[in-house]
Structure formats: structure tokens, C-alpha cells
Amino acid sequence: MKPSSILIADKNFLSRVGLELLVGELKGFEVVPSVCGDRKALTSQISLSKPDVVLIDFLSLGISIAEFNQITSSNKKTKFIAFSTIMNKNEMNAVLNCRINGYLLKECEKTEILEAINASLNGEKYVCGK
Description:
Blueprint: E1 4-9, H1 13-24, E2 29-31, H2 39-49, E3 53-56, H3 65-74, E4 79-84, H4 89-96, E5 102-105, H5 110-121, E6 126-127
Parallel strand pairs: 1-2, 1-3, 3-4, 4-5, 5-6
């Protein structure tokens, strides 16, 4: 069985490398080359690697909620899990109205990250308990 491919998109070096290490040690998953650039770099990498799941901090990449919504709508086969620092209620509602499969805060534990990835792959929505 082919492992599920995970793309990590975050400008923050520690977050990106930490997620790469975490996902890399999980069985059944493989990390495709990460993105630390901008919207163009993200869309290019999604087209190139066709990941099953994208773990993305779109705010760190300078991508607006409207642009993020366009990206998720243009890549219907890919599951998206947004992760970020705490947002205000209006921003959170706007993100949840995008075509995403999950939302995590950056302080979530390893088990929640894994639960979010598995839920997304099963077509379910997942929102961090925090």
C-alpha cells in the first residue's frame, strides 16, 4: 500500500522542521518537499507533488483567507489542514468556511496532529480541541 503523502507549508523554520520530523516518523506517511515561500511556491509544489494532505500555516506564507480559499477549491483531491496561532472569531469562521478538512493550533499535541491527518484522509473534518 502506497504511503499517504504530506506537504508541509510554513515559513517558520522550527514549525516546518518539527512537523517534518513528526510526520516522517509515522508509519504510512511520507513527507514531500516542504514549502516556505509564498502562494506561487505553494501552488507550484502542490501541482508537482500532488500530496494527499497539506498541513499549512497560510498566514505565515502571506496568503490571505480569500487566496487560501481559492487554493483549496482548485485542488479538490487534496485535503487541507490549516494550522496557526490563535485567530479572532471572524478569521476563524472565515477559515472554517474554506474547503478545509481540519484546523489545528500550533500548540496541539502529536496525537491531535495525527488524529487530524487521519480524519482528513477519511473525509472527516477535525478541529483542535484547544
